[in-house]
Amino acid sequence: MNKGKFITFEGCEGVGKSCQTRLLKEYLNSTNQEAIFIREPGGNAVSEKIRKLILDPNNNDITDLCEAMLYSAARAQLIGQVIAPALDSGKLVICDRFIDSTIAYQGFARGLGVDKIKTMNELVCGEYMPDLTIFLDLPPSESFKRKGGCDTSDRMELESIDFHNKVYEGYLEASRMYPNRIVRISPRGTKQDTNASIVKNLQSRGLIK
Ligand SMILES: Nc1ncnc2c1ncn2[C@@H]1O[C@H](COP(=O)(O)OP(=O)(O)O)[C@@H](O)[C@H]1O
Ligand SMILES: [Mg+2]
């Protein structure tokens, strides 16, 4: 039985997902609340190997469907090995990227279709769907400035600005598909401002203290 709570962070490259998961970790540590932090793709030995395969710029001939299925394979392993056991034992799980990345990148930006990806996500997740998703809502025109350009060792980041604009639109589409689960938070303020709104939001829903 799924007794724990599952929170995911989403948004375009450079919006502050890693930064905000780290600040949330610090907040939970300082208030003695236990949580498991993971990132996608990855979070275990097999999925980290799949991550290398997906992100390697040399693999520029991966088909869109293969890419979507590799992300899903990495996710299936992460759920089976880490997320399901943690949630079953009542733990709080926090993941940097999850199913909405596949909706935005593969379903929308690659054009595979958001409904097809939604079906695939449901197959992969079963009962282990996120309880709440924090979508850090900032378009790529602003988020890439923060990063100071793209990471050339990452095949996805090397995509064109048009592609990343589509990813952003894909996130807006995911927000419309899941209006109760996905919460849009603006990361335009300082890191601390954003952390404070995230903590307040999670507290108001009883997900953290
Ligand atoms: N609120 C903020 N204001 C300004 N810069 C920020 C803010 N939040 C994060 N950054 C910076 O933006 C860059 C990208 O953040 P990061 O957390 O790595 O994004 P992501 O994990 O979403 O790609 C980092 O250099 C980070 O320090
Ligand atoms: Mg990151």
Explain how this protein is built.
With 209 residues, this protein is α/β, with parallel strands linked by helices. Helix content is 54%, strand content 11%. It has eight helices and five strands; from the N terminus they run βαβααβααβααβα. Magnesium ion binds at residues 17-18.
Task: Give a nutshell description of this structure.
With 209 residues, the protein is an alpha/beta fold. The chain has a single domain (5-204), classed as P-loop containing nucleotide triphosphate hydrolases (Rossmann fold), CATH 3.40.50. It has 8 helices and 5 strands; from the N terminus they run βαβααβααβααβα.
Using only C-alpha atoms, the radius of gyration works out to 16 Å
> Gap between N and C termini, in Å?
23 Å
Tell me the domain tally.
1
How many helices in DSSP terms?
8
Q: How is the largest sheet built, in terms of strand order? A: 2-3-1-4-5
How would you summarize the topology of this molecule?
Layout lengths: L4 E6 L6 H14 L5 E4 L5 H11 L8 H25 L3 E5 L2 H11 L4 H12 L6 E5 L3 H8 L13 H17 L4 E4 L5 H14 L5
Parallel strand pairs: 1-3, 1-4, 2-3, 4-5
Helix pairs in contact: 1-8, 2-3, 3-5, 4-5, 4-7
The site of adenosine-5'-diphosphate has 14 residues, from helix 1, helix 6 and helix 8.
